[in-house]
Amino acid sequence: MIRRFSRDVAALGLPSGRPSSALVSEHDLAPLPSPAQRYLRFMGVVGRPRDWSLRVRGAGRFRMAPHRPWRSMDFLQYDTSFEIARIFHMRMPFLGPIPVQVRDTYIHGKGRMEGRLLDLFTVVNATGPELDIGELVTYLNDTVMFAPSMLLHGEAVWGAVDEHAFDLSLTDHGNAVRARVFVDGRGAMRNFSTSDRFYRDPNDPKSRWIRTQWTTPIAGWQEIDGRWLPGSGQAIWHLEHGEFPYAEFRMEPGAIAYNLPPGS
Question: What is the pLDDT of residues 149-158, one digit of tens each?
């Protein structure tokens, strides 16, 4: 999976850009709502150049529907801000020991979700405006969680809510998304909530996408290599009949790298 992931990212032709050497300062944070400033200080962005890419390798568990069993999974992802893009690969057992490889991407303003058994036979290949919006807001979630200085640019708008939350909006290729970020007294993110994701019944391939609240609560933070990173977290759909936690992940030392060219 690692080799295929690196080849796929390199083949996309994403720009590496020219990283800025200018350091993020308190002056850059001054126009933002106070909880957003607290969050950025906690994440250690002040005194560092803005990040422009991140690569994450992680593991956890995943399930396809509320009454289906949890399955172990591992994943790789790459996000870049020179041209907003997200590439996510996940591998997990699907039919007994037979693995499925899932690829979620947001490239040039278009989202796609693809699933392939043994990485050979396509079982899911979904595109459309719901995926465009959903993948962009997931990119927003990635950057909030791991590299918020990637959002210190004109396409991201930070809005006031109260002393424990702020709103973030992001626009790209005509797609506009919004989320609310909740923080504690230190500024550490507690949760991320958006209604710009869409859920479809996995038991009915002909069902339509439904706009659904989606949250990613964080269970604790840990300092790794001088940066604060989530210890573990969840992804939860808030369905009409109740919450559906469908993914859980954990972070370990060495799992994340910053400011790498595509495919490296």
Answer: 999 988 999 9
CB 228 within 8 A of CB 222: yes
Cβ-based neighbours of 175, under 8 Å, separated by 6 or more: 109, 132, 133, 136
Domain 2-12+34-61+72-258 listed as CATH 2.50.20: yes
**Would you say 84 and 70 are in contact if contact means Cβ atoms under 8 Å apart?**
no
Question: Six-digit token pair at 39?
Answer: 């969050």
Question: Which residues pair with residue 260 across a beta bridge?
Answer: none
241, 263, 234, 247: which is closest to 90 by C-alpha? Answer: 247
pLDDT value for 216: 98
Residue with the two structure tokens 């973030």: 168
The domain segmentation of the chain, as residue ranges, is 2-12+34-61+72-258
Q: What backbone phi and psi angles, to 5 degrees, belong to 245? A: -70, 125
Query: CA dist 160 to 32, 132, 138, Å?
Result: 8, 26, 21
Tokens of 177: 């998304």
Evaluate if pTM is beyond 0.90: yes
Taking the C-alpha atoms of residue 192 and residue 180, their distance in angstroms, rounded to an integer, is 6
- CA 38, 42, 44, 45 dihedral sign is negative
Cα gap 118→98, rounded to integer Å: 7
